[in-house]
């Protein structure tokens, strides 16, 4: 059997991973690299097709390795009096009942010879030269599996009373940054709101395919309504959206570019407190719900700079970054709760028709 290290590396695993880990990662990679996901771009579809061939080949070799190991574990040492294994060319001849174990080993040898031949072809075949996609192009993302490395998912909302409710303690006012990846399938839809159970706080939403709309309040009055950041967005398209708030102004960035700066009266806007709890993908007060997807939600207790937003927007965080107040990378992939990876304990609950999705922003390069 060929050196297996290469095949583990193809799947993003360390040598010695269990077969259950191999199967789990293989299933995730097949979803991510399926050519149908790239039907919008023929070149990327061909890249994904070749990548999927590589993944399938690596999985078959590892599967054969584990199969061989299981047979060896089950078969006791052959007694000296036991007939020798028949040559490969005679393996097809009738085998007496008393030689069932020997016949089984012969069959295994045939299978391994065939797999080894396929592996030799897989290792030596010449691959087509692939051009690396530029940052502006849609890049495939690598999804790993829980327990092996950091997995990450998106949440898909169906637009009908679905929300991710974040239970917070304490408060965050005055200076803060909210950022996430967002996609809308309709011209209008909330991204994040904290206007429940009381009004006059924070909200950011898609508005009429022409802008991102922001509301800011101090708990008793609005500080800046209709603080719209003009931006013609496309439906079914991922955008990285960041809103930076200080007592003096509100700045919006879309895909790392500054698109809006609005002056405010010197006062403290509320992101959340005991009377204003955050909801992702919903503004229940206005019966407004997102038909779209959200990924990688981050809250900071400082005003992030343009350089900081650009440097970190495409890469998941460790959770230990200074000033990180809340972080939801959606690692679970199932269930109705998702943890706050910043360590502040702001567990979020999925309600309504929300599904876990591997349709992540192409620019989000997972570790």
Descriptive account of the structure:
The protein has 367 residues and is of the alpha+beta class. The chain has 2 domains: 5-124, DnaJ domain (Helix Hairpins, Orthogonal Bundle); 154-357, Jelly Rolls. The protein has helices at residues 5-10, 19-32, 42-74, 100-124, 306-312; strands at 154-158, 163-166, 172-173, 176-184, 189-197, 203-207, 211-217, 222-224, 229-230, 239-245, 249-254, 257-263, 270-272, 276-280, 282-283, 288-289, 291-300, 324-328, 337-338, 348-351, 354-357. The strands form 4 sheets. Strands 2, 5, 6, 7, 8, 9, 14, 19 and 20 form a 9-stranded antiparallel β-sheet that branches. A hairpin with a 4-residue loop joins strand 15 (282-283) and strand 16. Helix 2 (19-32) runs antiparallel to helix 3 (42-74) and helix 3 (42-74) packs antiparallel against helix 4.
């Amino acid at each position: 059997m060929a050196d297996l290290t290469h095949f583990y590396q193809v799947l993003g695993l360390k040598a010695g991973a269990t077969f259950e880990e191999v199967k789990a990662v293989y299933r995730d990679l097949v979803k991510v690299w399926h050519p149908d996901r790239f039907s919008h771009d023929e070149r990327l579809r061909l890249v994904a097709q070749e990548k999927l061939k590589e993944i399938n080949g690596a999985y078959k070799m590892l599967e054969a390795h584990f199969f061989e190991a299981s047979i060896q574990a089950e078969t006791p040492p052959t007694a000296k009096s036991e007939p020798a294994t028949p040559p490969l060319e005679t393996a097809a001849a009738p085998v007496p009942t008393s030689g069932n174990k020997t016949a089984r080993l012969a069959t295994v040898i045939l299978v391994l010879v065939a797999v080894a031949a396929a592996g030799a072809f897989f290792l030596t075949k010449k691959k087509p030269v692939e051009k690396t996609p530029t940052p502006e192009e849609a890049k495939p993302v690598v999804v790993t599996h829980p327990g092996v490395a950091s997995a990450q998912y998106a949440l898909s909302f169906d637009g009908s009373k679905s929300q991710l409710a974040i239970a917070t303690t304490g408060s965050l006012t005055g200076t803060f940054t909210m950022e996430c990846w967002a996609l809308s399938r309709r011209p209008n839809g909330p991204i994040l709101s904290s206007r429940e159970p009381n009004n006059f706080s924070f909200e950011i939403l898609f508005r009429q395919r022409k802008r991102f709309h922001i509301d800011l309040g101090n708990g008793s009055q609005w500080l800046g309504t209709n603080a719209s950041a003009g931006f013609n967005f496309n439906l079914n398209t991922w955008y990285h959206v960041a809103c930076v708030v200080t007592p003096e102004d509100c700045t919006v960035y879309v895909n790392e570019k500054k698109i809006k700066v609005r002056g405010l009266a010197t006062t403290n806007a509320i992101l959340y407190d005991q009377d204003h709890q955050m909801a992702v993908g919903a503004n229940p007060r206005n019966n407004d719900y997102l038909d779209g997807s959200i990924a990688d939600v981050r809250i900071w207790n400082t005003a992030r700079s343009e350089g900081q937003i650009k440097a970190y927007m495409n890469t998941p965080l460790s959770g230990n970054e200074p000033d990180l107040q809340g972080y939801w990378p959606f690692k679970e992939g199932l269930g109705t709760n998702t943890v706050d990876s910043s360590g502040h304990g702001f567990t979020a609950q999925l309600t309504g028709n929300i599904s876990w999705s591997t349709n992540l922003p192409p620019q989000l390069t997972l570790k």
